[in-house]
């Protein structure tokens, strides 16, 4: 039997991880006797190639790496904007909109939600965080006193 190269093994692991993640398969499938038998039949019996199947811990690592890569792609492909306003009745609103370019290169926008009162809550949270950051930066500027 011919052994696969290390590069081919890495590629196989990534393909297997992508298949498991995209189709919501359990990671333990790589240790299932039936799955192993099918892979062994295709590789060893038909193709005369020796393949080592990764353990589920290795697949788990590959899926995490895949998720990191997909998050990067989504960050590059989508942008999120917020709009805050007050209506004439003094009620505050916030909306969250996702902007992206579709497969035909047409700009698209999708408003996720607009709701009342959340704007005030968001203002309080951001204001509180800014105050904490300011306090930390002010205390960092103060010289430390030597202990006796």
TrEMBL record:
Signal peptide: none annotated. It is found in: Nucleus. One of its GO terms (cellular component) is nucleus. SUPFAM superfamilies: Ribonuclease H-like (SSF53098). Keywords: Metal-binding, Nucleus, Zinc, Zinc-finger. GO terms for molecular function: zinc ion binding. Its main location: nucleus. Coiled coil: none annotated. InterPro entries: RNaseH-like_sf, ZnF_BED_domain_contain. It comes from the Eukaryota. This is DUF659 domain-containing protein.
